[in-house]
Amino acid sequence: MAVSLGLTLIIEIVFALFWRLQSPRELLLVGAVNLLTNPIVVAGYYLARWLVLKDFPGAPGMEMAWILKGVKLLLEAAAIGTEAFCYRMASRDIQNPWLFSLLANSLSYFTGNLIAKNR
Amino acid sequence: MKKVSLTARLLPGLWRRGKKAAVCLAFAAALASVPGTARADVIWEPDDPFYTEKCMGEAGRNEFVLNERNYFTNGKLGYLYVTDDPEKETIADALENGVRVFVSFTYVNGEGEEWGVIQYERGEDGQISPSYRYGEDDSVKTGWIRMEELSLIYDSEEFKKDHQGEIRNNDGTVEIQLEPGEELQYWSYPGSGNIIGNAPDGDKPAIAEIYTDEDGEQWGYVNYHYGIRDVWVCITRPSAVDLPVRAPSPQEQVAPAEIPQNLPETMDDALGEKHVGKEGTTRPRASTPAVIMTVIGLVALAAGSSIGIIAFIYKKKREEAEEESGSE
Question: Is residue B16 part of a domain?
Answer without folding.
Answer: no
